[in-house]
Amino acid sequence: MATIRAAQDAPRGEERVELSAVRDDAAAAERRLIRKIDIAVGIPVFILFLLSYLDRSSLGNALTAGLTEIDGFPPNGANVATSVFFVTYVVFETPSAMFFQLIGVRRAISAITVAWGITTLCTGFVTSYAGLLAVRLVLGACESGFFPIFAIYLTFWYTRSELGLRTSYLFVAAAVSGAFGGLLAAAILNIPASTGRPSWAWLYFIEGGITVVAGVAAHFVLADDYESAWFLNEHERQLMRDRDARSEYQSRAGAPAHDASSREVDQKHSPSYNWQEARLAFKDPKTWISATAQFGADSCLFAFSTFLPSIIRTFDPSYSNVVVQLLTVPVYAFASMSYVATAVFTDRRGHRWAVMALSSIIIIVGFSILLATDTRSFGPRYFATFLTSMIYTIVGLNVSWLNMNNALSIKRSTASGIQLSMGNAGGILAGQIFRSTDAPAYVRGYATCLGLVGYSMTAYLVMAAVLASWNAARRVELERRVPEQRSPRQLSSERTTRHSNATPSPSTSLDAETPASLRLRRRWHWQLAIGTGVAFGEPLSFRYAL
Fold first, then answer.
1. What is the pTM of this model?
2. Using CA atoms, how far apart are residues 367 and 114, in angstroms rounded to an integer?
3. N or C: which end of the chain has fewer CB within 10 A?
């Protein structure tokens, strides 16, 4: 008998081994595919994003190198020049993001990059303050669509679970651009003035030229999508199609076939649905909690990245321009490493809210040291700049946190657009935080950053509490085992059980509505449909990431 059973079980065991081997091969093939995409897409995107932040924030390096000596430069000229960039950036962000739909992603990215590269290069020819404001306005308009287009572009290649870490690399690029910009500025500022233009002008000439070359190269390196990608073979394209199908299935999991508000539909075939899904983002409170937190954090980030050389110069006015630029490099390097570490940790372990709250506390300590110490105390104040550089961490993690807590693609992109627009609007405020008239103490600037980061930290804690309460409420609803969430076989069995019992208990009565469950449904705006419960577009089985 034992021999017969062993013989019967042997084929099953072999099938399990073969199935396991097939799964391992598929997983290995997908890992190779992701590595190839990281190289062919991720690295070019990283470089272009680095150049974007390098060109916009080079104003801070130029200010310490003599830009303030151009004709008509007022006492608050640096603040206004910083703010005007974000005026056109915010105004043109949405129209520019739609640009790629007309000419394709590859051409749009290349055209935008070349346009802002030429504008950066032209900044080197500026001779008056009015000219500086003009090129800053144009630069803001040129760069405005860059991040939204790239945010959409990455979704063509990566699944929802992979996007968090890849999006974080963009903010790492922002921090790396500060370190690279400091090194580049230190080298360029040694160019003698006998060349006919001041050293700060050469900063713009070289950075703008690099960007133009990168923009032209992007036209040939990047692909519009995986179907036209030069670096993928047909087997890899099929694997991408399978990944897309799997991702779409997961996003529709549990969504009723007739409920347009709870499933993804092809944009080309259902444009009206897109607006319905987009409206969910405007109704969802987590969109606005996250967006207002982003405003506070981005305001400090833009101010910090632009005025860090000016802040460091106040530690010792005798420092040369080259020394000031070199002192910014370790700060930005620390910001890059700390952000990578926190992004990897939160991707593996979660607890984003805790990491963001802890980072906010570290930033607050840094600004408090800058407020409390004497302006001539180099050691403590320079150490404080390392603490405040953690601002990159909370800005980047907040973006990925909101994205992963929206199940539907159109709603996710709409919520992200609201968040990024409010964050970029903080750039207008950022230009007014560190006024030259407040130097060297910058009491008003440090106090403003303290308040903004304090608000952002509060918003993160509120967001975590809201998401935790939603998860708890969803568990309660699922534990009730509502009929809509059960299979036909389960329903048939439970109906038989109910009819066989004369007095069913409340726990087994599936038709009874308790006051508590009704309050929960009204409180969280649930719309229970056949097959799912939907809260702001997320299926009832969806769990919010903390």
1. 0.77
2. 37
3. N
